[in-house]
Amino acid sequence: AGAGAGPAEPTHTSPQGMKHRPSSGKEENPPQATPLPRPSLSSTTAGPPTLKIVYPTLTNVRESLEGYAAGGALPNPSSNYESQQYIKRDSHRWVANWCGRSRAMPHIKTYTRLGDNQNEPAFVLLTSANMSKAAWGALEKGASQLFIRSYEIGVLMVAGQNCHLQCMQFSDTGPATHTPAPLLRVPLPYDLPLTPYGPEEDMWVWDRNYTMLDSHGCVWRDGAQVPA
Asked: If you count DSSP H runs as helices and E runs as strands, how many of each does the chain have, helices first?
């Protein structure tokens, strides 16, 4: 737009990252969005939830089935780690004994809200979207538009009057709130309750060198698993 032009029209981003302006034509009967069901928060605690992050430790990766090579799918650079030390305070080890996958490093992204009764999540989102601006988007032009660089896909399950969620980690005879709604068992990939980092444990950081031998007798040097 040239000088003196009015406010810019809102733009939308296509999966290819190109921005488009919407058509100026008006629909006589525009489609109405269907609201999502309101999550059932009966099993959650009062007040704002506490953030908890499950992310493999250095020991998790070193002792995994693939050894250090598994860390190649966990892109946590030292620049992010050193500038976000607060994340370690809220982080928990990768433990998946319930499904026999504690030594299989994860790449799935899971978001959920659990309360005191960890058997019953209020919602579960299984997705390819990691915790980045590229995946979730960033506001641009004075917060007038949202630019999403990488389009992702996922499945959102919300508890409500028409559906009740229960974690598969618990047996069929485990505790559950009685409800006439259909029961959907959700396979959260990690054990509950979560296991906090130990005092000497640290996050996996993929651009550091590690000389302690992994499960294959290798070390991690310059971003690659190499024989000792």
From this structure: 4, 13
**Encoded tokens for 166:** 């229960």
| 51 token code pair | 């953030």
Distance separating alpha carbons of residues 179 and 187, to the nearest angstrom: 20
Split at pLDDT 50, 70, 90, the class of 221 is: very high
Secondary structure letter of residue 133 according to DSSP: H
CA dist., res. 11 & res. 195, Å (int): 44
The pLDDT tens digits of the residues spanning 20-75 come to: 444 455 555 655 655 555 555 544 455 677 899 999 999 999 999 999 999 999 98
Side chain identity at residue 179, one-letter code: T
In sign, the C-alpha dihedral spanning 117, 194, 76, 188 is: negative
Cis status, amide bond into 30, omega within 30 of 0: no
Q: CA 176 to CA 169: how far, in whole Å?
A: 13
What CA–CA distance (Å, rounded) separates 144 from 164?
Answer: 37
Quote the CA–CA distance of 103 and 60 in Å, as a whole number: 7
Going by C-alpha positions, the residue among 99, 89, 88, 101 that lies closest to residue 60 is 101
Q: How far apart are CA 218 and CA 203, in angstroms?
A: 19
The whole-angstrom separation of Cα 58 and Cα 70 is 11
| Token pair belonging to 67 | 């050894």
